[in-house]
Amino acid sequence: MLGPSHSCNMAMDGTESDATEMIAALQQGLSEESKQKAQVELNEHAEHLHNDIQAVRDMVITRPDITFVRSDDSFVLRFLRARKFSWVEAFMLYARYYEYRQKHAAMFKHCTIENPGVQQALLDGFPGVLEDTDHFGRKILVFYPANWDVTRYSIEHVLLAILISLEHMIQDPEIQVHGFAIIVDWSQFSFRQAARLSPAQMRLVIEGLQDSFPARFGGIHFINQPWYIDAAFTILKPFLKEKTRERTESNSVPNNVLRDFDAWEQHEEST
């Protein structure tokens, strides 16, 4: 792990040209439009990036109970973008990211695509990722819970498949800035499948995605959900943050969703 003054020392010891090059490297992969969005919506200012990153890294000392495996610039930047460059909020997310993984070390020991259960979950479309973005530039994730084969793999395998996919996608700075939109189509999801979901497992999923991952999650749309999913969602509401509740919509008919997701409409027409 890099020392707490790594980035700061580089900035002080280098020339102005070196600093400019480092800033450019941190925003590499962003279009000019995305840079503008990052500045306006996320409070990202290129000239302050190293100070922002260092401020988060300096807080690591306050959590000696956590092993922060990575502290390089590009990694810490993900947490700042996910929390609109609030140093404290970004660090809290950074800490929870590793705290969650330490707390569930037994599960994460098997967090690899070589895991047969994870492989099957990925093959069954957990998650589905559309090629096109929505009109906000967000990457669209699509879930068909009915595809879950409860006899072959667990909800933990599904969660690991999703996290592995997110880890891969969040390397893209465009996705860091624009975030994700989510559609969950509950068509044909059986009561038998729902019965395999315990409150503890559902809370595990919520904590892993809502509280412990450096991404911006925009609209979350449930469509075609049966009554028992509505009932389960009511039970889960206390575990959802207010922003998550506000961004989660239940639609009995997908037309309400299609107005916002042109890419989803194109996907449906092609299948």
* Biggest sheet layout: 5 strands, mixed
Under the CATH scheme, the architecture of the largest domain is 3-Layer(aba) Sandwich
Any idea of the CATH class of the largest domain?
A: Alpha Beta
> Helicity level, as a percent range?
40-55%
The helix-strand sequence is HHHHHHHHEEHHEHHEHHEHH
In whole angstroms, the N-to-C terminal distance is: 46 Å
The fourth-level CATH homologous superfamily of the largest domain is: CRAL-TRIO lipid binding domain
| SS strand fraction | 5-15%
Task: Specify Rg, calculated over alpha carbons.
Answer: 20 Å
| Class per helix and strand makeup | alpha/beta
Count every beta strand, where a strand is a DSSP E run of 2 or more residues.
5
Number of structural domains = 2
Strands of the widest sheet, in order across it, are 1-2-3-4-5
Shape verdict: globular
Number of helices: 16
CATH topology of the largest domain: Phosphatidylinositol Transfer Protein Sec14p
**Spans where pLDDT lies below 50 across 5 or more residues:** 1-14
Structural features, described:
With 271 residues, this protein is α/β, with parallel strands linked by helices. It has 2 domains: 6-103, no CATH class; 107-270, CRAL-TRIO lipid binding domain (Phosphatidylinositol Transfer Protein Sec14p, 3-Layer(aba) Sandwich). It is built from 16 helices and 5 strands. The protein has helices at 6-13, 16-26, 32-42, 49-58, 73-82, 87-103, 105-108, 116-123, 155-169, 173-178, 191-194, 199-211, 227-236, 242-247, 255-258, 262-270; strands at residues 128-133, 139-143, 180-185, 217-223, 248-251. It has a 5-stranded mixed beta sheet with strand order 1-2-3-4-5. Strand 1 (128-133) and strand 2 (139-143) form a beta hairpin. Helix 5 (73-82) crosses helix 6 (87-103) and helix 8 crosses helix 9. The longest helix is centred in the middle third of the chain and has 17 residues, at 87-103. It is globular and about 60 Å long. It starts with 5 loop residues before the first helix and ends with a helix.
